[in-house]
Amino acid sequence: MRPVVVSSRTLVGLSLACCLLLVLFMAPMGSGSPPPQRPHAGAACNGSIAQCLGEEHFLMDSETNRRMLQQRRYLTPNTFKPDTAVCDGGRAQRYNNCLPPSSNKPHRRCNTYERCR
């Protein structure tokens, strides 16, 4: 059997490649902190928003607002009647009674800003 001859250049290249791979594999482990624990998607959380979501609640603005609105202690009119319109304009009517009362005084002209009728 003949001995295998390896040039010094090949040996240096192999050792550099091994060192690079070792550094790449060890970099994620060197952070020192464990990965964040997330609750299971199906699990219910009975704590506050901050307890359930941790720091993620700053990233989910609409979800946070929805949960805060659910915690109100009062109900608005027609909350449980999703079929009704917000204003009582009737069928094929404009929403005239949604507008506030006229702010136009008799001596001024009416414009869009004052929302006069």
UniProtKB/TrEMBL annotation:
Gene Ontology MF terms in the entry: hormone activity
GO biological process, one term: calcium-mediated signaling
Coiled-coil stretches noted in the UniProt entry, renumbered to this chain: none
Recorded superkingdom: Eukaryota
Secretion signal span: 1-32
Keyword DNA repair belongs to the record: no
GO CC entries: plasmodesma
InterPro entries, A to Z: RALF
Annotated keywords: Disulfide bond, Hormone, Signal
Pfam families (alphabetical): RALF
Keyword tRNA processing: no
Family as reported in the entry's similarity comment: Belongs to the plant rapid alkalinization factor (RALF) family.
PANTHER family recorded: PROTEIN RALF-LIKE 32 (PTHR33136:SF4), RAPID ALKALINIZATION FACTOR-LIKE (PTHR33136)
Protein's recorded name: NADH-cytochrome b5 reductase 2
Native species: Anthurium amnicola
Organism placement in taxonomy: Eukaryota, Viridiplantae, Streptophyta, Embryophyta, Tracheophyta
